[in-house]
Design brief:
The chain is α/β, with parallel strands linked by helices. It has one domain (7-128): 5'-nuclease (Rossmann fold, 3-Layer(aba) Sandwich). 55% of the residues lie in helices and 12% in strands. The chain contains 6 helices and 5 strands, in the order E-H-H-E-H-H-E-H-H-E-E. The relative contact order is 0.21.
Length: 130
């Protein structure tokens, strides 16, 4: 299913949103937003190791209720294999979770919003830095 023109948020963007960056909050509130399941996992991990575990978990719960969380699929795994292979050939490895995030962006034809430069080494995904 293609969702062109919509945005898939990376973990660093969600964290910046939680920190209340005014320009970022305004963009997110006015956009069609999706989250990959991987980002929820990274946020949960961060909450587990934080000093404010309970409040961070509640914040994540509230977020999950407000946006669509996209799962992985066989198509996601196909994109993962292609992307990881291309990165290896280029000598440009990136974190595994980020390959999964990029795979979901590609599967659903979403614009990946991130502040991580290494996504620029992935062919065929659209991205923006907010």
């Amino acid at each position: 299913m293609k969702m062109s023109g919509s945005y898939l948020l990376d973990t660093n963007i969600v964290i910046a949103f939680y920190e209340g960056e005014p320009k970022l909050v305004k963009k997110i509130v006015g956009s069609e937003i999706y989250l990959p399941y991987v980002v929820i996992g990274e946020l949960r991990y961060g909450a587990e190791k934080s000093g404010r575990k309970s409040s961070n978990q509640k914040q994540i719960d509230a977020l999950v209720e407000q946006v669509t969380v996209l799962p992985g699929s066989a198509t996601t795994a196909k994109h993962y294999g292609v992307i990881k292979s291309q990165l290896k050939k280029k000598g440009r490895p990136i974190p595994e979770n980020d390959i999964w995030i990029a795979s979901i962006a590609k599967e659903y034809d979403l614009i990946l919003v991130t502040r991580d430069d290494h996504f620029s080494h992935i062919e065929g995904i659209k991205q923006e830095a907010w």
